[in-house]
Amino acid sequence: MSTLAIDLPATRDDPAPPAPARRGRLARLGTALSRLVVGVLLCFHPLPAVLVVGWTHRMLRRRLLRSLGIADAMPDAEAGAIPPRFFLADDPRAVWTRPDRHGRPPGFLRRLLRTPRVLLGGAAANARSGLAVLAGTYFLTLPACVCWWVGWYDGWLNSFNKGYEQAVVGPATGIAGILCFLAAMVVLPLSWAHHAATGTVAAYAQPGLMLRLARRRLGRYVVYVALFAVLTLPVSILRVMPVSFTNLDPTLETASPERVSRVANAYILGCGVYLFLAYVASRRLLGPLYRRALLGVLADRPETADRLPDRFRHALARAGHLDPPPPAPRRPLRRGAAAVARRLVGPALWSALFLLSFALVAQYFVVEFVNHQPFVGWMNQPLIHLPSLHFTPRGNG
Amino acid sequence: MATKPPGDRPGIPVIIRIHLRRRPRMNRREFLAGAGAVAGLAATGLASGTAPTPAGRRPFDGPNCIVVRFGGGVRRQETIASHETYSPFLLKELAPRGVLFPKMEIASQPGLDTSHGEGTLNILTGKYDRYQDVDGKFLGARFEAKVPTLFEALRRHFDLPAEQALIVNSEDRLDEEFYSFSTHLGFGMNYRSATLSLYRYKLYVRRRDLAENAANATGQARQEILQTLFELEGMDRLGQFRTVTEHRDAKGNRTLEFHPERLGQDPSSTPALDRFWDRWANYYGRSGLVNPRGDRLLTELSTWAMTHLKPRLMMVNYTDPDYVHWGNSSFYTRGVAIVDEGLKRLWEFAQADPFYRDRTVFVVVPDCGRDSNPFMSVPFQHHFNSASAHRIFALAVGPGIDRGRVFDKPCEQNAIAPTVARVMGFPMPFAEGTPLAEAFA
User: Fold this and answer.
1) Helix, strand or coil for residue B93?
2) What residues contact B48, with CB distance under 8 A and at least 6 apart?
3) Which of B36, B246, B239, B232 is nearest to B134 (CA)?
4) Which one in A22, A251, B51, B165 has a CA-CA gap of 20 to 30 Å to B418?
5) DSSP letter at B94?
6) pLDDT for A393
7) What is the C-alpha to C-alpha distance for residues B296 and B303, in angstroms, rounded to an integer?
8) Are residues B376 and A367 in contact, defined by beta-carbon separation less than 8 angstroms?
9) Does position B50 have pLDDT exceeding 70, yes or no?
10) Where are the alpha helices (DSSP H) in chain A?
11) Once rounded to an integer, what is the mean pLDDT over residues B286-314?
């Protein structure tokens, strides 16, 4: 039983915040379309794509906080009734009309000074969140990316030293990268969700907790990684497609730089449609998985709550999630059968998880073998890091 | 002058050696080589235990020819089409001395791949053909030419030993050692070229080492030595000549047996080549790690060959520019520069040797081009049949060749073989290309 459950009374029966009036179907469609357009434009280049990362993260955070029933206990903007925006402050009116520290309504000058925050408050929040997500993601994946990058470089040197002497360096570094990635993929997706739920980037440094969450919903986690691999497949195809451009239109081989640039930009923009949707979907799918895994672990092992950030833990306690579960009825036979099944199915599911993660690695390698992009090709996997397929055409050499 | 048999091991007919190998199944190459020998014997009436000798073979009196395959696969952009070339010697020093064909191409035909094996055989046979790896290996390039190569045509016409019709190959391109002869009935293995490569050297050294050491070693140590050579010989894609054979008793136990009596009978070697490798071993040791690496090794082997073997026709199959594909662009440009250095050294070496000076035509030609896809960061593939992969060039320099001329019209890669044949004065009846008449002064 959590001590917090004693200190902080549950507030499950508290009145929920008033729900915003539901908008019409057309309005929602318009909102979705405008988000799509902005998201696609932002995915054009890795730099603005940081905003997409941050926005998606904030959307996931909002979704998680609301589904956990702790939105009111977390003072972030994401927890509010208005979904995050790409550029504007999430609630421009609130920013505009917020009283000053003396409780007086803001004057003209103050409102004027608040204008940038109103216009770009969402962008700033997205950038902050995006950079935090990237920092955490690279904390887990940078070893793999660097190993691949170095391994690729050194592996090609083998062609020159003909397999002698340092021949093992390239392949060994590449394999080390694969192992690092497989290890990272066990915890990375749940770390994204954990980061979103707790609001702290330290979530990426809790592999033990993530492993516990993964184990709690291992079957569904495997399904998630399978979906992630499936979502990545079209991205891989989009990354290798430029190889066939000159076969489809041989005049492109000698096209002017302006034409090459036009075609490349149009292609990158087109790729953004899938990339944006796939990126958002890959994060959205995490919400229910994380929530169930977290609540399941807290029910099974309440002491796990001690590993959660204070604010998040308090909020969960107030929402009644840290209350001790009712004692399970003793059914030794059924429990024994379940334990045996777990022992049998568990290893199979872990194997499946590693195989599916390896399927991702295989895609990354195939992409590089068909259309290698020095450095970026290894350092940015679009559905993991920055959702952008931007490349600078090399030109005719 | 008395006509010598073209076989390199007088007294042991090739056909007999092949049949003595007792392999469970004879492959097409052996069959055709054997059939060629039978046809040769029947035609010449020679059945006295020597290899077939067509009548009328004349001594060779030049000029010599050195074919430099500017491989594996280079684009015009980095070689001849820019003043900022990575091959300055080729473009700025050698080209003004001869005739440059900047618009040479590989024909676009269904099934015709623009790759190294195919390109090399286009150059050697003067005929475009569809090739498949004889073992059906994925990405394998063990191709069989159906029409005679330059080496066979030369040696059938002139009285030359194998080591004077020479291929110099990379160590890791064993498939390319297979291009030294065709399956054509009238030509084939008896007129093959000799091959210089680090693989051949290692085979030679290991066999010699075994002859000395295996007799002294016993038990497991002996088996390990034998296993090393057994594996090395298993990589030989030319024939199945082995000095180490595998045996299994009734219980299935495997033993390896060394046959020292077979030393010196390798049909892919000659006594002159054995002496060559002895010299090489004395200088560079036996490890294979002291000698230059990559394409610099090919240049070194070539200059050694020019000193000790005096080849009349030598093809140097440079490869380093191929080590780019999806790797690092700088590896490619570095490879081009290394080939250019090699070309310069070969040229200067020839000019310094009275045997080659003013008696040797250099022909420089890539095996294939590479892609020129402006949308790719590393656009250096050549398997996707892009127009750029078909675009190559050629340069001919030497006695009888015009000077300072650029033939700026399209021509074909299959013209190289008939051109070389015309330079050296032998017929190339199965080549489909026509000699580059514009090359000649």
Assistant:
1) helix
2) none
3) B239
4) B51
5) I
6) 82
7) 11
8) no
9) no
10) 3-7, 25-42, 46-67, 92-97, 108-161, 169-198, 207-216, 218-240, 245-248, 257-284, 286-300, 310-318, 332-370, 376-379
11) 95
pLDDT at B111: 83
Q: Which of B198, B375, B387 sits opposite A242 (nearest CB)?
A: B375
| Cβ neighbourhood burial of A128 (10 Å; 0-12, 13-18, 19+) | middle
- Tell me how close the Cα of B422 comes to any Cα of chain A, in angstroms: 36
With beta carbons less than 8 A apart as the criterion, state whether A49 and A386 touch.
yes
Q: Which residues of chain A lie closer than 8 angstroms to B379, CB-CB? A: 394, 397
* Token pair for B106: 């590989």
Closest-CA residue to A75 (of A67, A83, A65): A65
ipTM of the complex, rounded to two decimals: 0.81
Q: Inter-chain contact A260–B374, Cβ cutoff 8 Å? A: yes
Those residues whose C-beta lies under 8 Å from the C-beta of residue A210, and which sit 6 or more positions away, are: A186, A187, A190, A191, A194
Alpha-carbon distances, residue B410 vs B106, B390, B393, B406 (angstroms): 10, 12, 10, 12
Can you give the length of chain B in residues?
A: 441
The pLDDT value given to residue A395? 67
Res. B12: pLDDT tops 50:
no
Peptide bond into B63 cis (omega under 30): yes
pLDDT at B22: 35
A156 interaction partners in chain B (CB closer than 8 Å): 323-324, 327-328, 331
Token representation of residue B378: 């590393």
The answer to whether the Cα torsion of A259, A261, A263, A269 is positive or negative is: negative
Q: How far, in Å, CA of A131 to CA of B375, rounded?
A: 29
Query: Within an 8 Å CB–CB cutoff, is residue B292 touching chain A?
Result: no
Of B320, B326, B331, the CB nearest to A369: B326
CB A62 within 8 A of CB A20: no
Could you report the per-residue pLDDT of B358-368, keeping only the tens digit for each? Answer: 999 999 999 99
B385 contacts in A (CB within 8 Å)? Answer: 247
Among residues B324, B321, B378, B325, which one has the least CA distance to residue A376?
B378
Instruction: Look at residue B10 and tell me whether its pLDDT is greater than 80.
Output: no
Q: What is the DSSP string of A125-167?
A: HHHHHHHHHHHHHHHHHHHHHHHHHHHHHHHHHHHHHTT-GGG
Find the range with the poorest average confidence among A64-68, B91-95, B339-343: A64-68
Q: B69 or A161: whose pLDDT is higher?
A: B69
Supply the mean pLDDT for chain A. 89
**Region A266-286: what's the mean pLDDT?**
97
Name the closest residue on chain B to residue A267, using Cα atoms.
Answer: B375
Q: What angle do CA A317, A321, A326 make, to 5 degrees?
A: 120
Cβ density class A258-296: b for 16+ within 10 Å, e for less? eebeebbeebbeebbebbbbbbbebbebbbbbbbebbbe
Whether residue B171 and residue A369 make contact (CB cut-off 8 A), yes or no, is: no
pLDDT value, residue A18: 53
Averaged over A108-118, what is the pLDDT?
A: 88
- How far apart are alpha carbons B132 and A386 in whole angstroms? 43
Would you tell me the crossing angle of helices A207-216 and A218-240 to the nearest 10 degrees? 110
Hey, is A86 helix, strand or coil? coil
Single-letter amino acid, residue B310: K
